[in-house]
Amino acid sequence: MGSPYYRDMDEPTSPAGAGHHRSRSASRPPMAHAMDYPRTRYQSLDRGGLVDPHDREFIPIREPRDRSRDRSLERGLYLEDELYGRSARQSPSAMGGYNTGMGPTSDRAYLGDLQHQNTDLQRELGNLKRELELTNQKLGSSMHSIKTFWSPELKKERALRKEESAKYSLINDQLKLLSTENQKQAMLVRQLEEELRLRMRQPNLEMQQQMEAIYAENDHLQREISILRETIKDLECRVETQKQTLIARDESIKKLLEMLQAKGMGKEEERQMFQQMQAMAQKQLDEFRLEIQRRDQEILAMAAKMKT
Questions:
Q1: How many Å apart are CA 139 and CA 4, to the nearest integer?
Q2: Phi and psi for 102 in degrees, rounded to 5?
Q3: Exposure winner among 160, 202, 298, 305, fewest CB in 10 A?
């Protein structure tokens, strides 16, 4: 075929079957190339064989800043793997051309094509890396602005929300306590109403006895009051009569004095008689006053009993 690999395969192993062996080896090179070509294609796809490690290596960010940045890096790695997988998927057409190309020129053309594709992919990868760096910078600046500007506002809002939640919880607790107290008060009122109904339906014997005693005492007091009123009236009548008698006595005394003066009695006797009559009248007045005071005290005592 022209290459030493094919010459080694075309050499006869024995002089007896030289022609037959040469005719059989003529049909083998496509199989040998088919078995050998994937290894050559795998070596061409190895990024360490044809490209400088500094050009192909993707240096990850050693200090992760944020989850969003890690996700963007993972997205870049995924794009890189997708691009290399696409180049691998595009290679079978070139492999078919190589199998049908039959020569080192086709191999060199295939390698050149792979190198060209690899450079295109490296260029695209560099563009993607630059875009990734720009997005990371924008993301970092936006995160910085969020931390510097929005963090105090968010803290204030969180503090206000915490205070409001605490107030709401306190109000809810107070409402629960008030509702329980209202329920207890309602139950107590119901119990008292039931007790009152039972007592009204079935009055107690002690209460009945007390009420009867009170009614009897009230009747007794009413009778006593009526008696006292009658006695007061009698006393008033007696006082009036005593006043009239006193007035009559005064008139009689005056008449006697006039008669004595007319008869010519001495002044000493006249004076003694006047003193005796005055003492008798004063004694009667004192007796009347004591009787009236005693009656007044009895009336006041009865009024106090009626009030109690």
A1: 59
A2: 60, 60
A3: 202
CA pair distance 1, 206, nearest whole angstrom? 139
Nearest alpha-carbon partner for 55 in 125, 117, 116: 125
Contact call for residues 60 and 73 (beta carbons, < 8 A)? yes
* Alpha-carbon span 39 to 14, nearest angstrom: 31
Provide the pLDDT for residue 124.
93
Cβ neighbors of 267 (< 8 A, separation 6 or more) are: none
- The pLDDT confidence band at residue 95, using thresholds 50, 70 and 90, is very low
Cα 10 from Cα 20, distance rounded (Å): 11
CA count, 13 A, side-chain hemisphere, 245? 13
Nearest by Cα to 291 from 237, 253, 216, 221: 237
> Do the Cβ atoms of 129 and 58 come closer than 8 Å?
yes
User: What is the gyration radius of the CA atoms in the chain, in angstroms?
Assistant: 70
Contact between residue 132 and residue 76 where contact means Cβ atoms under 8 Å apart: yes
Task: Return the DSSP state at 148.
Answer: I
pLDDT digit string, tens, across residues 116-146? 999 999 999 999 999 999 999 888 888 877 7
Q: Distance from first CA to last CA of the chain, Å, rounded? A: 147
Rounded Cα gap, residues 243 and 285, in angstroms = 9
Taking each helix axis from N to C end, the angle separating 67-101 and 29-45, rounded to the nearest 10 degrees, works out to 160
Domain boundaries, the chain: 4-149, 205-307
Using alpha carbons, select from 218, 226, 228 the residue that is nearest to residue 300. Answer: 228
For 134-183, the pLDDT digits (tens) are 999 888 888 877 777 667 777 888 889 899 999 999 999 999 999 999 99
